[in-house]
Amino acid sequence: MTTTTDPWPLPRVVVAAPASGHGKTTIATGLLAALRRRGLTVSPHKVGPDYIDPGYHALAAGRPGRNLDPFLVGAERIAGLLRHGASVPTPADIAVIEGVMGLHDGAVGRRDYASTAHVARLIEAPVLLVLDTTAQGRSAAALTLGMAAFDPAVRIGGVILNRVGSPRHETLLRDALAEVGVPVLGAVTRAAEVAAPARHLGLVPVAERAPESLAIVTALAELVEATVDLDAVLDLARTAAPLTTPAWDPVTAVGGPAGAERPVVALAGGPAFTFSYAETTELLAAAGADVLTVDPLRDPALPAGTRAVVIGGGFPEAYAQALAGNTTLRAELADFDGPIVAECAGLLYLGRSLDDVPMCGRLDLTARMTGRLTLGYREAVAVTDSPVARAGEPVRGHEFHRTTTDPGHGDRPAWRWNDAEHGFVSGRVHASYLHTHWAGHPDAARRLVEACR
């Protein structure tokens, strides 16, 4: 086994597509599950800020799904985060990285920055291109050739044909791809029975439908085993150059424990609050906290000795009545005198009501669902000192919601971006719509643990 600084010839492959909707999640999740069924230890990763796909990845791989997002954490940390994720709890035999949107689609106004192509370059991994071949024949070869030529630094090592209609259709496509010299590593037929149900913000998270999700992952594994050349995928993954970047280390990132005491930090989980990056827990633990999960749907109280609370994103609107019914926990959070950090769903839960259903009432706001999707990366600056940021501190984050609050921000806003103020700092509460990845600003974890004193 290598140390964290030795070159590591980690086999790895990036699953990409020309655009969203071609089947990246289907293929990536099926590959993870199928390779695991071969007895391999597989490390799952996702380009971008998405929380839901990594849940399916984790179920397929049997270890946490992790995100690789240059915008949120900085390009300089991507290779190290990959190596860290592929190393714990045990070193992986292969890493599978699912892309985001189209291969070359990056942050708006930044060319391909934070795109799948950008990450593939940063981790020096070959790309496995997934093509939705519905109503497409020989043009699939032209599309593939264009994707390969657009950025010579991104190596497309093979194609998986998805949603193939018939054996004749597959033959036509394989012949066309042979003309441009790109190998076909699989041809997946249309299989509606493995489609996961969707919601207004994407797929329904794994935690909300665990038995059905497990059945979907099993079906995806069987589909990939039957239609994809797994040996060829492994051979492609082994062509990746050795990783020479040291593994990211949460202890180094936070500078070690913030004190001798180990305060309990309660992290919201369960079906209503599924949006959390694995590194959040690791950073809090490295800063000296004992991190325990609380499920606001079922747990009547915070864990014993809780000194701080972190409430991330999720779908409280789908569970509003059940959240309202847990009156004892709502009352405890309304009176809790320790620091509370809330993002998006957490913001809604701390308000007075969500779609007229009572919530915690810790913040003087009401929230409601709308028909408008607010989505995108944000470059924010902290407006007010809080348990996770100092006024004037720049932070990068991401918004993704269909709700709105009244008012839109408090007298002491949390952030400012796009010439507007956002979020709430009230006492020791910091709440806003902004999702952040603490690997990009690890001081947040240390500051929160220090605030527990």
Q: Would you write up a description of this structure?
A:
Its EC number is 6.3.5.9. Residues 393-413 are annotated as: Disordered. The relative contact order is 0.12. The strands form four sheets. This protein has a seven-stranded parallel beta sheet, with helices on both faces. A six-stranded mixed beta sheet has the order 11-10-12-13-21-20. Strands 14, 15, 16, 17, 18 and 19 form a six-stranded mixed beta sheet that branches. It is of the alpha/beta class and 453 residues long. It has helices at residues 24-37, 52-61, 70-73, 78-87, 116-122, 139-150, 167-179, 210-227, 230-237, 250-254, 278-286, 320-325, 327-335, 345-350, 443-451, and strands spanning 12-16, 42-47, 66-68, 94-98, 127-132, 156-164, 184-189, 198-199, 202-203, 264-268, 290-294, 306-311, 340-343, 353-354, 357-358, 366-382, 394-406, 415-417, 420-422, 424-426, 429-432. A hairpin with a 2-residue loop joins β14 (353-354) and β15 (357-358). The protein contains 15 helices and 21 strands. The two termini are 40 Å apart. α1 (24-37) crosses α8 and α6 (139-150) crosses α7.
In short:
It holds the Pfam family CbiA. By secondary structure, the protein is α/β, with parallel strands linked by helices.
